[in-house]
Amino acid sequence: MPPETILQKENNFSEWYSEILKRAEILDIRYPVKGVYVWYPYGYKLRKLIYEILQSLLDKEHEEVLFPLLIPREELMKEKEHIKGFEEEVFWVTKGGSTELEIPLALRPTSETAIYPVFKVWIRSHRDLPLRVYQIVNTFRYETKHTRPLIRAREITSFKEAHTAHASRADAEDQIKRAVALYKNFFDQLAIPYVITRRPDWDKFPGAVYSLAFDTIMPDGRTMQIGTIHLLGESFSRTFDIKYEDKDGSSKFVNQTCYGISERCVASVIAIHGDDHGLVLPHEVAPIQVVIVPIVFSSGEGGNNEVKQVEEACFTVQEALKEAGIRTFMDNSEERPGAKYYRWEMKGVPLRIEIGPRDLRNNRCEFVRRNDLKRMHVPLSEVVPEVKRTLKEIHEGIFEKAKETLRTNIHKSEGIGADISAEEMEELRRRAGRGIVSLFLCEREGCGNELEEQLGVSVLGEAYEREEGEKNEGKCLFCSRKAKNVYVARAY
Ligand code: 5CA
Ligand code: ZN
User: Which residue in 3, 174, 234, 236 has the most C-beta neighbors within 10 A?
Assistant: First the structure.
């Protein structure tokens, strides 16, 4: 696509997404292995800032660790449910040079089976609990569905996985609540809205007691799972024999949880906030928070002296902002202002400050907000507090807009279930696949499949936090059995 082609996020999200990854220099998709991509420097800076937020939240009550990439076949195969779920997705290392390995080694698809044999030797007594660790690593999954940069990769480069062990089920359940709060806090800082659901039993993480998921809605109306939290209970501790000695001397299995987030969190920031001009980044994660553009034409108004004065004023503003801890860049390259606007809008810089000769004569500058391209004059003496205020305002603006989009894309209905009318069914067919629809569905996998076949959508699950007064008893749309309200959507 020629670089001057105007992008249209609303009309063709898929094309918009791949063009933005390229033009904003997030990810290079030309690496010659399917589902494997290269981070550009700018994309990597964005990733780093996003993951710094995640780590600062985790570091409050977890310790960071680093486990090996290779997992011996026998360990990976130990937990029956777990391997059933991952069997078809595992990459294997079977040779060292030309020698066939005695024990084939798996590239971790996730690290339960690498970590838990070590938990077995680390955990001795109740004093070792709770044990809470996390790592950020690459994991490998031989994905057979359509691969997509940052969304469905075969090498997940930024897999944050937390693993915890507790003395009791109640403690593990409490950890689930803490993990939910932590993820909420994280996505709030990215201004990403979400729904939290409990996945149906037949779609939970392989080996888990139950799974909770955070999903957001992408601009094309499909949902994307951006984080999951699993209660593992004793299923892995029994398999890997992870026991502790309790206060009374008895030996007990630990209760476990794990929860993960991948570079899909980066994809969500790009997809949800971006517009036809490019990225729109919340300032917390913007590699450049403010770009300063001197508006000078060397042959134009005022002559060389004024050019110098404008540049000096820009430098002064830059220094003041840097001093205040704001990531600032002054673009005094030779390019025309229009070309500069284009570049920094594409890169999602939240705020642009322009200073020209006329501004200088009036002791002011001009702010241009990336999210709505609104302009305002600001006295030079007030730049620093005004930048801080405006960045916060932009964050609130894009968060509110994203929340509103999410709200309008959740179609709550009073009781779409077995006794649905023909018109209602027609309406449902029309809506399904654009956003989230709520309806009555029982817990049987067969009815989930029926839903997939008839409406092309899948089950997200029951809302984790219910709204007051919401009707939650009905009859399954397909089998008329007793059913609960669940969210369904076409998912990525
Ligand atoms: N061990 C648990 C949590 S630590 C686990 O592996 N959970 S998971 O399978 O649900 O993955 C965690 C998150 O990774 C998912 O919620 C999803 O957002 C993301 N994810 C899963 N597969 C991919 C993939 N192929 N590409 C990018 N992200 C992925
Ligand atoms: Zn049913």
Answer: 236
